[in-house]
Amino acid sequence: METMPEKECHASPSNMAGQVALVTGGGSGIGRAAAIRMAGAGAAAVVIAGRRRPEGEAVAAECRAAGAQSLYVQTDVTQESEVQRLIDTVLAQFGRLDAAFNNAGRQERRASLHTQESGVYDAIFDANVRAVFLCLKYQLPPMLARGKGSIVINTSVSGVRNPNPGLALYSASKAAAISLMRSAAMEYASHGIRINAIAPGRVVTDMMLASGIADMSAVAAGLPLKRMGQPEEVAEAVFWLLSGAASYVVGHVLAADGGFLAS
Fold first, then answer.
1. Bridge pairing between strands 20-24 and 193-200
2. In angstroms, how far is the first alpha carbon of the chain from the final one?
């Protein structure tokens, strides 16, 4: 096993110099933006996990171009054996795991709750809750062994306040993910591991574009900032939570939502 050497750094704690980071669902959108941001901020290695190989390999190449070692590991994070293999691969390649952004998620097709099939419930909760549990289950042991680490979970403003008729399962699953994050944060804070969540609002991603919203300009006009967010803007919030600049932030849900929850 090759162990990634620790790098002594006297730069601002807002960087990620020398760290080994993992991003699930890293092939596009917020995951891609966060991975590239970490790579450009001095991360020693950024591992991209996801189901779509072409997109994942492309992001790994972008991370290498930004100065970090990077590899893509094809992973379905709803499957325990694949999550275990993912973490085993990270440890075998780099010797440790310092930071993780559990970003992978899924949204159902917009429909009234009484018309949804039980299989849709299973798929949404597997992707948005079970996957978070599995990632934590295998990410925490190597962090516990080192006595430090940082994890951010991608939730949603929908888990705090449901703004989306027809997306009840998505909203419920994100609320469950927030509750799971808070419980885990309290359990592991004394071990030096910070766990937090990001709650994006209306952000221009593939999932948002496929959500069935007929008039994006009307949605943007209803936000205090009067515009949709960009993945890179949310990635900045993710990066801050993972970095040493947020060293006293634990169990927090940071809304990157253009003011939606405040309105």
1. unpaired
2. 51
Q: How many CB atoms lie within 10 A of CB 131?
A: 26
Residues with active-site annotation: 170
* C-alpha neighbours within 13 Å on the C-beta side of residue 204: 9
**Radius of gyration of the CA atoms of the chain, in A:** 18
DSSP state of 49: E
φ, ψ (nearest 5 deg) of residue 153: -110, 130
Are 94 and 146 in contact by the 8 Å Cβ rule? The answer is: no
What is the β-pairing status of strands 20-24 and 253-256? unpaired
With a cut of 60, say whether residue 6 has pLDDT above it.
Answer: no
Burial 57-80 (b: 16+ CB within 10 A, else e): bbbbebbeebebbbbbbebbbbee
Cβ atoms within 10 Å of 175's Cβ, excluding its own: 19
User: What is residue 20's three-state secondary structure?
Assistant: strand
Give me the pLDDT at residue 10, please: 37
Domains and CATH numbers, the chain: 20-256 (3.40.50.720)
Q: What is the pLDDT of residue 118?
A: 95
CB-facing half-sphere around the CA of 57: CA atoms within 13 A: 3
Phi/psi for 231 (5° steps) reads -50, -35
Q: How much is the mean pLDDT over the chain?
A: 91
